[in-house]
Amino acid sequence: MKYPEFSKTAADDFVIGDLRDPVICRNVTDQEFDEVYQLAADMGGAGFVFTGENDADIMHNSAMINLNMAEASNSAKVKEIFYSSSACMYPAYNQEDPDNPKCSEDSAYPAAPDSEYGWEKLFSEHVYLAFQRNYGLNIRIARFHNIFGPEGTWTGGREKAPAALCRKVAETEDGGEIEVWGDGKQIRPFLYIDECLEAVRRLMNSDFFGPVNIGSEEMVTINQLAEMIMSVADKTLIIKHIPGPLGVRGRNSDNRLIYERLNWRPSMRLKEGLAITCKWIGQQVEIANKKHPEKAAL
Q1: What is the pTM of this model?
Q2: Which of 24, 78, 121, 245 could connect to 86 by a Cys-Cys bridge, CB 3.0–4.6 Å?
């Protein structure tokens, strides 16, 4: 746990601690909380997850966090705990055709995630489900599909595609060149953070425990994502495709179940969320350039 990087916390009480330590987890669940939101994970974008260089840390750190939080929440008799799983737990074999991916909740098995990050998410889903069956822990599980927005990681190697592309566009002069991994034809849905929060609240206020998808049904290629970001930034740039980690070829958020159970579907178009996010990241780039003008000139 760490303080918010880009704004002041609105929390009444804020504890700095390592959730891999069971003592810390017991200390932060030291009373009968109505709700606990377990969002912590060792995570990042494709450059962090798909290189293979961080696999052991990803699996160990995130699994320890979830094992500890499940046990601590159960011992403290937390009334309800939310766990943020990921679309990365879906089988890679259902996501090879970019025009016809299959990511309905019932398609999760036979299991074959495309990364150790996905395997850990699947494992931790089963941890919470087991605590529900054996101890009556009141759980909610959602599988997030590429959530983005202001105040998220935008540099340093762990940022995801929307933030990385917003940064690249902000740092590049009109007419310049930005790099995109692969051919840019891999397809993804991207959901703005406020939309995600609304879906999570509806899940927590329901008697449905999931797992359920939370994502956008607006699918775009990475090339199209880059073009959208250029458009909102009012820049014309050249896309240079280079080798890099990619993940699955195509992914969608099948929202039939969440609409059926919670009457939720996204209302914001992707370009609207990108406009807000790109403006914020552009401001961060300006602040960084003022602090380190020698780097801005490179």
Answers
A1: 0.94
A2: 121
Evaluate whether residue 63 is within a structural domain. Answer: yes
In this structure, the number of other CB atoms found within 10 A of the CB of residue 100 comes to: 10
pLDDT in tens, 5-16: 888 888 888 889
2 in a structural domain: no
Please, which pLDDT band fits residue 296 given cuts at 50, 70 and 90? low
Residue pair 33/75 in contact (Cβ under 8 Å)? The answer is no
Cα–Cα distance list, 243 to 46, 162, 180 (Å): 12, 18, 8
Q: Closest by alpha carbon to 91, among 101, 83, 76, 82? A: 101
170 near 233, Cβ under 8 Å? yes
Name the residues annotated as catalytic: 117
* Res 248 pLDDT > 90: yes
298 band by pLDDT with thresholds 50, 70 and 90: very low
Give the number of residues written for the chain.
298
Cα–Cα distance measured from residue 52 to residue 18, given in angstroms and rounded to the nearest whole number: 24
Task: CATH number of the domain at 95, please.
Answer: 3.40.50.720
| Token representation of residue 207 | 């008697």
Task: Indicate if the pLDDT at residue 48 is higher than 70.
Answer: yes
Nearest to 220 by CA among 189, 183, 181: 189
Q: Is the dihedral of CA 50, 117, 194, 96 positive or negative?
A: positive
- Say if 6 falls within a structural domain: no
Q: By residue range, what is the domain housing residue 80?
A: 22-296
Alpha helices by DSSP H, listed for the chain, are 22-28, 46-49, 55-75, 116-135, 161-171, 193-204, 222-232, 256-262, 270-291, 293-296
Q: Name, in order, each residue with C-beta under 8 angstroms of 35's C-beta and a sequence gap of 6 or more.
A: 78, 79, 80, 81, 82, 204
Domain count, the chain: 1
| CA proximity to 212, closest of 248, 260, 273 | 260
